[in-house]
Amino acid sequence: MLTNPRYGLIARQSVARFRTVFWLGAALAGVAALVAFAVDELKTSRLQSALWHDYARDARFSVDAGASAAIRFPHSGPYDERLGYRQLPNYIERLQAQGYVLTRQARMSPRLIELHERGLFGPYREKNQAGLTVSDCRAQTLLRTRVPQRVYERFEEVPPLLVNALLFVEDRHLLDAQPPQRNPAIDPERFAKAALEQMHRALDVTRPASGGSTLATQIEKYRHSPGGRTASVGDKLRQMASASLRAYQDGDDTLARRRQIVVDYLDTVPLAARPGFGEVHGLGDGLWTWYGREFGEVNRLLADTGGETAPSDEVLRRQAVAFKQALSLMIAQRRPSQHLLGNGEGLTRLTDSYLRLMGDAGIIAPALRDAALAVPLQQQAELPAAPRPDFVQRKAVNALRTHVSTLLDVPRAYDLERLDLEAETSLDNEAQALAIHALTRLRTPAAAKSAGLIGDHRLDPGANLSPLIYSFTLYERGAHANLLRVQADNIDQPFDVNQGARLDLGSTAKLRTLVSYLELVAELHERWVGLDAPALSALKPSDRDPLGTWARQYLLHAKDRSLAPMLEAAMQRRYSASEGEAFFTGGGLHHFENFDRTHAAASMTVQEAFNHSVNLVFIRLMRDIVYHRMFGEATDGQRLLQDPADPRRREMLARFADNEGSAYLARFHRKYKGKSAAEAEALLLRGVRPSAPRLASVLFTIEPEAGDAQLDELLARKLGRGAGSPRALRALRNTYAGLSLADRGYVARVHPLELWLVGFLRQQPDATLAQALDASARERQEVYAWLFKTRHKSAQDRRIRELLERDAFAQVHRSWQRLGYPFASLTPSYASAIGASGDRPAALAELMGILVNDGARRPVQRVGALHFARDTPYESRLEQRGPAALQVLPPEVAATARRALFSVVREGTARRLKGALVGADGRAIEIGGKTGTGDHRYELRGRGGQVIAERKIGRSATFVFMIGDRYYGTILAYVREPHAARYRFTSALPVQLLKSFGPQLLPVLQRNGCGDNGRS
């Protein structure tokens, strides 16, 4: 039977249609299944909760000893920058260069490192509040700053009304109980809406589009995205993935985490910045900064809105104001600068709109809605004035904070106090408090009297106590460093007298001079101790080098030629204390006096003079030191003075001309700076006794191109008549215009460089001193041309001696600097031995630390450890190890100086302290030190050198001390002008002050828990 081909075609077509329908149906079923699965997944988060939890579970970190190789740091993000996490590698590198070592650091798991390298933000419990903490050696908190200042610690602290308002505005389903595995990074409804709006915007860029962010992704954005913004789709996906990881790290049930998101957001949402406060983070700080509201008060008001009893009208009004302000900040976060720094009208409209919507939705009661709509939204015009800090109480803490700032190179306190950082310091807060109390109470007469501060060489009865400044600093000798324990004063200002000024500290300079003297003796010992008697006898020290002569004689006859006996012998050398001698030093002739005039007739040993602080002995001792540097065996000073043909004489004279000419120019530049040409000319001529030759010399120097008419006008103005004839004018020009600069200055009786500078400033009125010095190199040499002529050998010798003396003092200065002297120059005068060069209490304490440590300069430890980012994946702890002690003095020199200091207390100017301190065993602790009284005066002298006016700028009394072999420091009394002239106290004042409170201070210092083996 034959089959009809038509039927076969129909059959095949039917099969094809069936297959098409089948696969289309299967595809539609698959899509429907996928859609159903996606809808179910978006509602339940079953699969993603398992996947995210599995991925996040291994993203952990631990903290272990030593530096870590398994650590990565954030690259961007406002949160990571503010807390210092991004800058941590730089901080660590900088600290390591300053002697700190990593003792503990976080170790990230491989999964956490993988997430970081994929660009995600590490899932860990981030801090809503952090800042700088400074603690003392017993872990007592000295300073604690927290940003933000006002936060919720737990979800239960947040008023439900604020929770509901936040969810209504930002994330309505965040706290839905079902499903418990809900992913807070995705809100299906908002995500779908945002996706559609973004597609529409791709077709029409003018259409607005929302971002679909949840609270969780917003937190990731403003904390960790660059600039706190979403710049691309990749940024958005990174935020969502990071928020998802954070949500599921601790398990599938995310309700607790979602509640924490509410707290995190309310505590940290950025709310612009305000002058006087800085960046504002979180609702609590926002309410205080923008509306002047106390956070606790707002929370109490809004926590009471759910009661059954209707509130009174006044309470309702206050609740409405508080709620409207809080709600406005929730809305303002979308464009904080626009809403909070503008006129506020747009923010008010938006807030009122949300109030109506929330009332309609039943989020707030109609009564609260109506009351809130009725009140204005008004920001506070100005921030409340910050309370004035107590500088006395916080002086040491501020100094420590400044030290941390320098260590990290974070100059602004604003930035430093926002770092997640703990600084562990060596300060002893109990001892600090005791010292502050002892110093501040001295403003009252009763306290000053009970401390024994009234009496001879101290304060006069009835003296005004308020201008007196007291400062006390104490260090403890540690195993590896010197530890700052107390830094206190009674100045209620930021100024730190201990290390912020150059003070005349009087006879404390004798300690530096004594050490220089002993150091020089040690140098001579090292140089000559190996020579036998014939070699020593062959040495011919200059007759101008008494120290070299004495050292040679000592070594020739000493049975024990070791250093220690030689130093003790040097302490027994005798000097005259006579005031009858004049001393040529510092370019002039000087007379000096002893404080106690009865010493003037005495001859005494160096030790006796040190005990009683006798000025003239130390003036002569400094002269010997300088003479050794000028004329000792290793110098050419003697040959330079004896041989007029030595070519180095001309070099030194040229140097003298340059130095002295520069000094004069600096003085003249200060005199004429900022004056017009006419004013400068008038000022110059004021010092000229007018005559035709003098006026011509002046004019042709300051105005070389001046014509005869100018000269005639000047003569007529100053002499009352002109030259009288053109011939007379030409004669003046021919005679004086061609003179050298030096000769014109001689004729005018004005320093030639003063004439030159006035002329130079006419041509360049804005010239700096440096420019004037550059332009006058030839003129400075020309002015002193007479000095280079051989017939003036005596004048040359005097100048060369001045230069040799300056060079000698430069060597003394370098030795002082090596021992902590803080200034870049030393007054080149014997008067430096009695305080003319100034000093600082902190620098004297450093010198005392070297002596206490047997001549070794150990680092001073103020901050023993810096602990960054505790309980984070970036945690890093660095502890100070510091450089090894540097031996800057022979131990024998330090030991000899210490014995001399103990002698000052046993039988010298500080003997009132003898036996004042007793240890726990009942034995007296030996105290050593050096006293000093300084009078800083400004004197105006006449042509004959007599004082015609005097101004007393300050008076100081200082005691630099050591207590046994463990503690050392300084104590200072100081008074400034205009009060200084009324006081006559001496160093007896600080010595008595230490005696008065030292017995209370010592037991606190010796208490356990604040030692070098502890946290220090």
Note down, in words, how this protein is organized.
With 1016 residues, the chain is of the alpha+beta class. The strands form six sheets. The protein has a seven-stranded mixed β-sheet. The protein has a six-stranded mixed β-sheet with strand order 15-9-8-21-20-19, sandwiched between helices. β5 and β6 form a beta hairpin. Mean pLDDT is 88; it is low at 1012-1016.
Question: Mind summarizing the main beta sheet?
Answer: 7 strands, mixed
Q: If helices are DSSP runs of H or I spanning 4 or more residues, what is the number of helices? A: 40
Q: Segments where pLDDT lies below 50 for 5+ residues?
A: 1012-1016
Number of extended strands: 21
Shape: elongated
> What is the CA-based Rg, rounded?
41 Å
Strand content: 5-15%
Based on secondary structure, the structural category is: alpha+beta
Q: Terminal Cα separation, in Å?
A: 112 Å
Mean pLDDT: 88
The side-by-side strand order for the widest beta sheet comes to 1-2-17-16-7-3-4
Helix content: 40-55%
